[in-house]
Each structure stands twice: as structure tokens, then as C-alpha cells.
Protein: Leptin receptor overlapping transcript-like 1
Organism: Pogonophryne albipinna
Amino acid sequence: MAGIKALISLSFGGAIGLMFLMLGCALPVYDKYWPLFLLFFYILSPIPYCISRRVVDDTDSASNACKELAIFLTTGIVISAFGLPIIFARAAVIAWGACALVLTGNVVIFSTILGFFIVFGSNDDFSWQQW
């Protein structure tokens, strides 16, 4: 039953994060939809780590180059997702208030993605592969 509670709380966190992103785009004060490009970063961020987990044997003896590369690529994607709204705001494409809402949404969404991998990433009795 603990897995169901974690799944519900993660989906709630994802909905809150997307709400902040949509508020940064759709409020009449801001009315620019450029920050929706961050949806690509949300989709791309877990892909390198998921691929590395499928390719690599999970031995705890030493660090693995494939897993390190996946973490590096994921970090680059996450940093790019935080940098894009700031660049948009500096170039006056979006307002600074919209930038703040989008950055708040980024924190919530990436925390939700991290929480998903923490909760369902272990090889315990309950994992996301059962779904």
C-alpha cells in the first residue's frame, strides 16, 4: 500500500509543477507560450539514466562509465531546463514573473522525477515494472 501512496503523491507533484508552468505561460499578464519548450526537457531528462540502467549490469564493485555518462547527460538536460527561462527573460521574450513561475515549476517537476527514481528505482518487492 505504500507504493500506491507514493504514486499518488508523485502524480500530485507532477500536476502542481505543470500548473506552475502553465501559469507562467497562460496568465493574461504574461501571455507568451515559449516556456512550453521545457516539456521537451521534462521528457528527455530521465531517458539517459533509464537507458544506462538497461544496458549496465548492476554491480556495486566500481563506478561504471556508462552510468556516469548518463548522469552527466541528465545533469546537462536539467541545467538547460533551468537556463532556458532565464535566457528568455534576459532577452525580454518572457516577463521575469513568468520566469519565476516556470523555475518554480522546474523545481517541482524535477523533484518529482527524482522522487520517482528514488521510490521505484530500487529492486525491492514493489517496483514500477509491475505496473
Observations:
- The CA atoms of residues 83 and 103 lie 9 Å apart.
- The longest helix spans residues 65-90.
- DSSP finds five helices and no strands in the chain.
- The chain has a mean pLDDT of 87.
